[in-house]
Amino acid sequence: MGEARVQDRLEAMPLDALMAEAAALRDAAHGRVISYSRKVFIPLTKLCRDVCHYCTFAENPRPGHDAYLSPEEVLAIARAGAAAGCTEALFTLGDKPELRWRQAREALAALGHETTISYLAAMCDLVLRETGLLPHANPGVMSRDEIAALRAVTASQGIMLESASARLCEPGQVHHGSPDKHPEARLEVLRLAGVLRVPFTTGILIGIGETRAERLEALREIAAIHVEHGHIQEVIIQNFRAKPRTKLAGAEEPDLDDLLWTIVAARIVLGGAMNIQAPPNLSPGVYQKLVAAGLNDWGGVSPVTPDHVNPEAPWPHLEDLAARTAEAGKVLVQRLPTYPEYVRAVDTWCAPAVATAMRRASDAEGFARGDDWSPGETRLPRMPAPRLAAADAALARLVDRATDGARLDAPEIMRLFAARDADQAHVAAAADRLRAAMSGETIRYVVNRNINYTNICTYRCKFCAFSKGKTHEALRGPAYDLDHAEIVRRAEEAWARGATEVCLQGGIHPDYTGETYEGICRAIHSALPDMHIHAFSPLEVTQGAATLGLSLRDYLARLKSAGLGTLPGTAAEILDDEIRAIICPDKVNTAEWVAVARAAHALGLRTTATIMFGHVETPLNWARHLLVLRDLQAQTGGFTEFVPLPFVHMEAPMYLRGQARQGPTFREALLMHSVARLVLHPHITSIQTKLGEDGSAGRGPGAAGRRQRPRRHADERKHQPRRRDAARPGISARGDGGAYSLDRAQTGAADDALRDAARGTTAQVLPCGGPGAGGADGATQAGTRVARGSAPRAPRQRPKGLWTP
Q: What is the mean pLDDT of residues 243-247?
């Protein structure tokens, strides 16, 4: 639609109709989310060379008042913000005061700097290093070199265009005498930021003498620059507020309808995907109307510092802002100073040091982490009660289709993973009802022992803190390679303590061949013919077959003949080669992993299926992974269960190098179980959780439609941090790189963990003989398997009617 036609429509259509159109555009792109940034406001200097007629932020030098905040003052403000849960340090300051004020030049010299922006860059670096807050800088007009210098130490930058009308710089107008407010100078900053790939904030100030046509001109200028560079992350629509002691103290302020019209115009001109913001403290009491006009962001809100630009307008309390947002049918979600779409491509848009901090502060969607939980934490974050009255109707229809067994596509699955507030509650409740219908109220477990036969590995998976090579001595102790006698001894010890299964995995040793894995199975099976052997991921199988020149089917048949009972579906990580190229480029790819599982299923060898989530992937990759599993299961029926493995970041090399997030949030861990239950239905009906890593034993199965079950799997140990014996009463660590055995005298403690898992339900906790415990036909009893690991000592006689090898 041409510019003239858009302007005609905006001028001619009733405001209510325009607002409905703008809100629909917003909803199609942003759903129910209204974001905000929890910030601390750092006014580095209030000196400025410009003389805007409406501004009370800028001050003249005053005796006894420092021209700039000192580094100590900057850090004190930033630390107060960090303690209050802020993630953004907003640096606001006057424009190039050293070009006008001698006091500014002298103060900068004393601080060791020639320019204000040089000092600003140093303070951004200081705050980033010392507090972890992510700096956002608004220093005014900048050169290319200055923008580049700030890019190295900031998450984002910004400059308010305010107006594209040069008329406002003429005598008698608000920007007369302010050289940095000339539109071309400010538009050039926007262009340079785009060239340098800086996530950038801009906006317009309404009510300062401009016309509506001039507002539209400014919005079109912003849109054109964004189309070229894609870097405008938000556009602020700020309403002028008259302030005492300014030339515009008596000027008329824009009314609410004028503000709403301009928000609508920004949404229509800039499109549904753009982030449109209006400061809530400048329009108290009308939040629902602002939301209805099409905004999707409240901007920065500080629990610590005032709005130094509008000190007469206090920030809303965050609880009140959340409640008012919910009244408008939306969910308030904290973001970082950089918007999610840029966080998800952080290596493109941020310098390396900033990218590391950004990853560690973000969730899988690119919003701020909603909690400080990490896998293994036993103190769980409080899940707030939903504020919205009901789930979104479109989401509810997706859930109904999944419950009916329909195959959802990737965008639909992503919508489920994006569920928050009442939407998340609806997803979890539906998943739990499905669990009850398919699995009943019985929770089963199997007593096993993990035996990691070697931690020497030729692969270099970036998440792995398990494998050893010549340069890996610092990671979790020395290298080892167990002989058959030691492997059998450990299996016999496990059998004596009530185990019914051993789980065998290890590194890909350069000297191992397919005969090595076959020999391990034969040794155990010969000594313990009734012990179930659950062993070898698709990676070991692929490597073993290749060394012998055998097909996957022929090699798996040899392993089965040697005593192999089932296979762990580990080495899956994320079944999307886009992610595998980042985290494990030399490992089996998605098609190769699927080929092993397919071949095993064809031989009657059942396998588990896993996902390792919370590192570099996004919900799109989760969706693709689940669809790979669902589609294969629909063909073969060979998966016994789905096991979500939260990424344990603490010792993972890619986390230590700043290349990964710090695992999933607790919300994401719950959603993974809920969404998997729905998406994999009716093909994979047993969803497993890992009590030792998600810390959720006390939540009960109803938390996410899963079966609570402790599990210790060998491949999982490859990215789990070291645990000391004292930290786990009743479980003694062995020298096999992370396998654990139950202390006979302390198994009651493990039993209590299982009972806690069933608390609040009618669930029974029963032992089972091995993977896929089910009916006489050997099919998995949906949702009833409990993982291998810390569990009560099972009876030596296997329970009748359950799985037998």
A: 91
Cβ–Cβ under 8 Å, residues 131 and 137: no
Helix boundaries (H) for 568-665: 577-583, 590-602, 619-636, 653-656
Backbone angles phi, psi at 7, to 5 degrees: -65, -40
The CA distances from residue 244 to 172, 251, 644, in Å, are: 19, 10, 59
The pLDDT assigned to 376 comes to 80
Rounded CA gap, 682 and 556, in Å?
28
State the distance between the two ends of the chain, measured CA to CA, in whole angstroms: 69
| 3-state per-residue secondary structure call for 495-522 | HHCCCCEEEEECCCCCCCCHHHHHHHHH
CB-side exposure of 561: number of CA atoms within 13 Å? 7
pLDDT for 642 beyond 90? yes
Tell me what pLDDT residue 59 has.
Answer: 94
CA distance 141 to 118: 14
Using alpha carbons, select from 425, 327, 420 the residue that is nearest to residue 31.
Answer: 420
Q: Does the pLDDT value for residue 630 go beyond 50?
A: yes
By C-alpha distance, which of 150, 105, 143 is closest to 127? Answer: 150
| Residue 130 CB coordination number (10 Å) | 14
Tell me the average pLDDT of the chain.
86
CA distances from 81 to 124, 221, 342, 452 (A): 14, 35, 23, 46
Count other Cβ atoms within 10 Å, centred on residue 400.
12
Q: Are 678 and 413 in contact (CB under 8 A)?
A: no
Closest CA to 661 of 378, 377, 358: 358
How crowded is the C-beta side of 277, counted as CA atoms within 13 Å?
Answer: 24
Report pLDDT for 466: 63
Q: What sign does the dihedral 22-24-28-32 (CA atoms) show?
A: positive
**Beta-bridge mates of residue 505:** 452
pLDDT by residue (tens digit) across 354-410? 999 999 999 999 999 999 898 888 888 888 899 999 999 999 999 999 999 999 999
> Which amino acid appears at position 198 of this protein?
V
User: How large a percentage of the chain has pLDDT more than 90?
Assistant: 76
Is the pLDDT at 493 greater than 70? The verdict is: yes
Average pLDDT over residues 613-624: 97
What pLDDT is recorded for position 201?
98
502 pLDDT exceeds 90? yes
Query: Could you tell me how far CA 776 lies from the centroid of its own chain?
Result: 42
Max Cα–Cα distance, the chain, nearest Å: 97
Written as one string, the DSSP assignment of 345-413 is: THHHHS-HHHHHHHHHHB-TTSSBPS----TT-SSPPP-PPP-SSS--HHHHHHHHHHHTT----HHHH
Q: What is the dihedral of CA 56, 57, 63, 65, to 10 degrees?
A: 140
Q: Can you read off the two tokens belonging to residue 335?
A: 């973001």
Pairing of strands 232-239, 731-733: unpaired
Considering only CA atoms, which of 608, 662, 653 is closest in space to residue 466?
653
Q: Are strands 740-742 and 731-733 parallel, antiparallel or unpaired?
A: antiparallel
- 455 φ/ψ angles, rounded to the nearest 5 degrees: -115, 15
